[in-house]
Amino acid sequence: MTSQSNRDRDRKQARLIATGEGGFAVDAVATVDALWEALGAAPAPALEALFAHKPGLIWHLVPTVQAAAASRTGTASTGAQRLTDLTPAAVAAAANEAGCPTLTWQVWSDHGRDSFIVHHRRIAVLRVMTAWSLTRFDPARTGGAYSRAEILPGDYLVATVDHPVPAVWCGRVEVVPTASALAERPEFTAKRLAADCTVCHQRWYGLDGKPRLLPVDTPGPAWWIDEGSGFAAATGTIGCPVPGCTGRVWVRFLAEPES
Ligand SMILES: [Zn+2]
After folding, report:
1. How far is the CA of 28 from the centre of ligand 1 (A)?
2. How far is the CA of 220 from the centre of ligand 1 (A)?
3. How is the chain split into domains, by residue range?
């Protein structure tokens, strides 16, 4: 890896940090955005709209062959499954009921204990093996707006973050990440921080979500994160607490040490 791509990677990592209640925290939304980019996830807008749970919409899952025949003849589709529980597990169950084999499993769920995770992320896979269609009816719109989208066979990732505002992502991926592959991304385990001052070159580390930074290899001061000032989320930096130093301390997550 070149130093330029190292810098690009480091700049991206800096944006994954936010200040949480009383300390640094993972910016959950930014980490999912970064994962989507890393995986090259292709947008799946119809599924994303489904899992976003917008109130008032009426969803059906229909075997694609029957949906196409119904729209040709103007008749109601047979085999349609009304979707009321809009979770990947319930949608997969409805697809199987409609004769379209579909699997789902969870690849990540934060528990957030002893880590810098504040807002929890959940990521599930929806593996569509036989195409099905989604129909959406919005009774609130004049004439009732109806739309249909075909969900092609493939692997779809569904990610949700509940706070600070509910966010949903759905994208089609070529390779499904495993939980252990996600755990190798420092911002997913989020148990260790590194912090370096660009001027006095003091180095610190933070552990297990505690808002305290301890010196690395030097007799420098330990400090509580709220002793630094002027956290800048865009750069992941905070004012250096060393007396007389005007530098910025650059904070990033570290991968877990090999056990
Ligand atoms: Zn400094």
Report:
1. 28
2. 10
3. 26-178, 191-254
Over the stretch 42-51, which tens digit does the pLDDT of each residue have? 999 999 999 9
**Tell me, what DSSP letter sits at residue 15?**
T
The 8-class DSSP code of residue 71 comes to H
CA dihedral 161, 166, 172, 178 (to 10 degrees): 10
Contact between 180 and 189 under an 8 Å Cβ cutoff? The reply is no
d(CA 91, CA 160): 16
Confidence at residue 236, expressed as pLDDT on a 0 to 100 scale: 77
DSSP string, 225-236: GGGS---BTTTT
CA of 255 to the centre of ligand 1 (A): 24
**Interval between CA 22 and ligand 1 midpoint (Å):** 21
Spacing, Cα 244 to ligand 1 middle (Å): 8
Question: Ligand 1 (ion): which residues have CB within 5 A?
Answer: 197, 199-200, 240, 242, 245, 247
> For 205-259, how does the pLDDT look when each residue is reduced to its tens digit (9 = 90+)?
999 888 889 999 877 788 887 777 777 777 778 889 888 999 998 888 887 765 5
Q: How far is the CA of 195 from the centre of ligand 1 (A)?
A: 10
Per residue in 71-117, pLDDT (tens digit) is 666 555 567 899 999 999 999 999 999 999 999 999 999 986 788 88
